[in-house]
Amino acid sequence: MTYDPTGHLLLTPVDREAPDRVRRLRELGFGDRPDAAFDAFAQRLAEVTGAPYSMVNFIDENRQFFAGLHTPEGTRGGELNAADSAGVGRFMARDHGYCPHVVVRRKALVLEDVCDYPRFAGNPVVDEIGIRSYLGAPLIDRTGIALGTICVVDTEPRPWGRAGLVTIKTLAAELIEQIHRREDGRI
After folding, report:
1. Helix %, strand %, coil % for the chain, to 5?
2. Which of 22, 74, 105, 183 has the smallest set of CB atoms within 10 Å of its CB?
3. Are 129 and 79 in contact (CB under 8 A)?
């Protein structure tokens, strides 16, 4: 785990599964280019949850890649990308955001107001992007690898509650089934 040298708060968890995840993502052909099916899934995720931002996120050793991305009408995807304008919002450093925690924990994460959690309030996405709430679930495939996450975020606190948790977990399972069908050649 890494620590902030000034506050000693846990920032980004150590991800021992990353090399296996990268191999698996390469096998599947994911993790380095946008995918229309994942963009459509992110759009649906935003509609179902009412969130302005949603992603299908694959994570390697150094960065996160939004293979599926939905942003509000009239905004550029780059607004979710504090560091890399060339990626048009598709890439984010691994130490930004909450998805790396979800992947390592292998469990869904509900943050109705990230500022209520000292461990998460200091994340760069709070100040750089204005993220105030997060709801995400891991994408664990048939090999047992956590490929990444699906998530939704908002710039306002959101009462996701138990219904939000059930929704994000159900949609993660649905996307994993879609990934398996694609791998098996059924899509």
Report:
1. 40, 20, 40
2. 74
3. yes
3-state secondary structure of 147: strand
What does each C-alpha distance from 117 to 112, 133, 147 come to in angstroms?
Answer: 10, 11, 26
Parts of the chain with a pLDDT under 70: 1-11, 74-88, 187
Task: Report pTM.
Answer: 0.86
> Coil, strand, or helix at residue 177?
helix
Question: How many CA atoms, within 13 angstroms, populate the side-chain half-sphere of residue 117?
Answer: 17
Helix axes 161-183, 36-49, angle to 10 degrees: 160
Q: What angle is formed at CA 175 by the lines to CA 173 and CA 179, rounded to 5 degrees?
A: 115
- Beta-bridge partners for 55: 69, 151
Q: What is the C-alpha separation between 13 and 129, in angstroms, rounded?
A: 21
Residue 10 is classified by DSSP as: B
Helix or strand (DSSP H, E) at 36:
helix 36-49
pLDDT given at position 97: 87
